[in-house]
Amino acid sequence: MQGVNLSWWFLVLLLLWTFAVVADSASVTSSERGGVGRSQRRGGGGGAEKKKRYHRIQHGQCSYTFILPELDGCQAAGSTEQYGSARSRTSVVQRDSPTMDGDWPTQKLQHLENTMENNTQWLQKLESFVQKTLRRDVANIPSHVVHNQTAAMLEIGTNLLTHTAEQTRKLNVVEAKVLNHTSRIEIQLLENSLSTNKLEKELLLQTSEIGRLRDKNSRLENKVQKLESQQRGELEDMRQEKNRLQSVVRTQMSAIESLERQLRVASSNNTALQRQQALLMESVHTLINMVSATGSPPRSQMWRDCADVYKAGHSVSGLYHIYIGNRTEPLQVYCDMETDGGGWTVFQRRFNGSVDFQRSWSEYRMGFGDVLGEHWLGNEALHHLTSQGQYSLRVELRDWEGNSAHSQYDRFTLGSERQQYRLYLRGYSGTAGRQSSLASHGTRFSTRDQDNDNCDHCKCALMLTGGWWFDACGFSNLNGIYYAIGHNIRKLNGIKWHHFRGPSYSLHSTAMMARPYDF
Ligand SMILES: *[C@@H]1O[C@H](CO)[C@@H](O)[C@H](O)[C@H]1NC(C)=O
Ligand SMILES: *[C@@H]1O[C@H](CO)[C@@H](O)[C@H](O)[C@H]1NC(C)=O
Ligand SMILES: *[C@@H]1O[C@H](CO)[C@@H](O)[C@H](O)[C@H]1NC(C)=O
Ligand SMILES: *[C@@H]1O[C@H](CO)[C@@H](O)[C@H](O)[C@H]1NC(C)=O
Ligand SMILES: *[C@@H]1O[C@H](CO)[C@@H](O)[C@H](O)[C@H]1NC(C)=O
Ligand SMILES: *[C@@H]1O[C@H](CO)[C@@H](O)[C@H](O)[C@H]1NC(C)=O
Ligand SMILES: [Ca+2]
After folding, report:
1. Which residues lie with the beta carbon below 6 Å from any ligand 4 atom?
2. From CA 228, how far away is CA 23, in angstroms rounded?
């Protein structure tokens, strides 16, 4: 009776311990490699352990000793909860394991769990069976049967323990494998994340680089656009300039064409003039021949001056023969048929310095030079000319700057040689100064060899050169030395007309001519 009770109690203890061992081994981590061995040592009942309990059961002549480990917080009633917690820890391991490629360990664990469940169920069945058997046979079962039963149950318990330990070991191995797998995967993941980080960094770098390049590109584009617009503007400017130049060229071309036309007209005009001159010369020569052949021409053809020539219908400037006074010898003179209506008998002309005007009294009396070029007609001829009637004097002047001027005297008379060719003038007008540059009343003619001037202690003709109506010595001398351009200023002995260009300016060209006052 008492032995049966004992064996029942023992069985409960055994079960309790089994669950405790399972729970303990399930909590072993992968780093605790010796976890399996420890639980085995406990199962084997090593006597050196600190926390262990000895249970001795006496049944008749036989006694059974059990060595059980002390379990903290372990209670018989909480056995199922202990198991439950073990299961949850297992499932924690399951949850920690990677989901990918984790089918195999999960299946295995599931299998082991099933086995454990089966075992538990089996044990519960056994327990209930034992209880029933004990209750039924407790009265009439002899002690040796009880003894046999107890032994059998112990054997079964031992087998169960071994089985459980084996399962636990397998579970640990699986767990380690899972953990190894997990750690490997974790390492891989770590590596992956590392490489991912690296890639991300590279990506960032490349992104920033791309941004930098884009900035650069946009700046370059801006620059290119600016340059393009600038070049476009320059091109436009150049095009306008080209158009302007083209128009200038066009206008110049048309100007050149018109000039060419004018040149053609002028040259044809020129040839016409030349023809006219040749005709004139021919008629002059026939006239001369006629004169020399027949002696004196008819009185009607004996012109007294150029005014007569002009009135006879000759309006071209040039050489003509006139008969001054009652003379029968013709005199060659140059007639100016253009100035102020023409009809002028020219008695002095200078324009290029080809004729020397440093002459003697007799030379000035008779005249010198080329009647067609520079010349002095002669004081004697001039005296006779102005004695024919009332004559006017005109003086034509031109300076080196191209300015022209004239002085005109309404009345002009030259005395005889006995009067030293005194000069009488009246009625001044003209553009070469508001005053006359010639002394008007009775100035006598002087040359280097005849001093008739009004300078008591000097010889004006020697100082100022040439022959002239010197006063003392006066404001003019158109027979002075001819100075070329560049040498014509600050010359007291040059060709002077004081009230035109001052006392020391030598003029470019001069002409002195006479015409009847009533022309
Ligand atoms: C557990 O028991 C069930 C029936 O209860 C059975 O089908 C199964 O194969 C058993 N598993 C093991 C591992 O013994
Ligand atoms: C008890 O066990 C012994 C040996 O195991 C056996 O010989 C004997 O017959 C058993 N007794 C009963 C009643 O079963
Ligand atoms: C994991 O298992 C591999 C073989 O599958 C083994 O070579 C390696 O040493 C194990 N690592 C650890 C930490 O157990
Ligand atoms: C000469 O020129 C004048 C104008 O200066 C003109 O009237 C005349 O027709 C021209 N004569 C010839 C032949 O071209
Ligand atoms: C010219 O001769 C005429 C008479 O034929 C005379 O009356 C006149 O005075 C003379 N003229 C001169 C300038 O000698
Ligand atoms: C001055 O003009 C005349 C007539 O035109 C000419 O014959 C002479 O060669 C010219 N002399 C000089 C130095 O130019
Ligand atoms: Ca003198």
Report:
1. 265, 268-269, 272
2. 85
**Torsion sign over Cα 43, 49, 55, 59:** positive
- The count of C-alpha atoms lying within 13 angstroms of the C-alpha of 88, restricted to the half-sphere facing its C-beta, is 6
Q: Give the helix/strand (H/E) hosting 51.
A: none
Ligand nearest to the CA of 273: 4
What CATH number is attached to the domain comprising 509?
3.90.215.10
- Integer-rounded Cα Rg, in Å, for the chain is 80
List Cβ neighbours of 23 (8 Å cut-off, separation of 6 or more). Answer: 82, 83, 85, 86
Determine, yes or no, domain membership for 433: yes
What's the pLDDT band for 33 if we cut at 50, 70, 90? very low
CB of 356 sitting under 6 A from ligand 6: no
Residue among 57, 13, 17, 68 nearest 147 (CA) = 57
Q: How many domains does the chain have?
A: 1
- Give the pairing of strands 423-430 and 404-414: antiparallel
How many whole angstroms from 352 Cα to the centroid of ligand 6? Answer: 6
Domain that holds residue 458: 306-516
pTM above 0.85, yes or no: no
Q: Read off the tokens for 313.
A: 């219908």
Q: Decide if 90 is inside a domain.
A: no
Cβ of 118 below 6 Å from ligand 1: yes
Assess whether the C-beta atom of 325 lies below 6 angstroms from ligand 5. yes
Cβ of residue 61 lying under 6 Å from some atom of ligand 5: no
- Identify the pLDDT of residue 61: 62
Whose C-alpha lies nearest to ligand 1, atom 8?
Answer: 118
In a domain, 202, yes or no: no
Q: How far is the CA of 468 from the centre of ligand 1 (A)?
A: 170
In this structure, which residue's CA is closest to atom 3 in ligand 6?
373
280 in any annotated domain = no
Cα–ligand 4 centroid distance for 262 (angstroms): 10
What is the number of the ligand closest to the CA of 474? 7
Spatial distance between the Cα atoms of 402 and 123, rounded to a whole number of angstroms: 153
pLDDT in tens, 323-339: 998 788 899 999 999 99
Query: HSE on the CB side for 247, CA within 13 Å?
Result: 5
Nearest-CA residue for atom 5 of ligand 2: 148
In the block, which residue shows the tokens 């004006």? 460
Please indicate whether residue 110, judged by its CB atom, sits closer than 6 Å to ligand 1: no
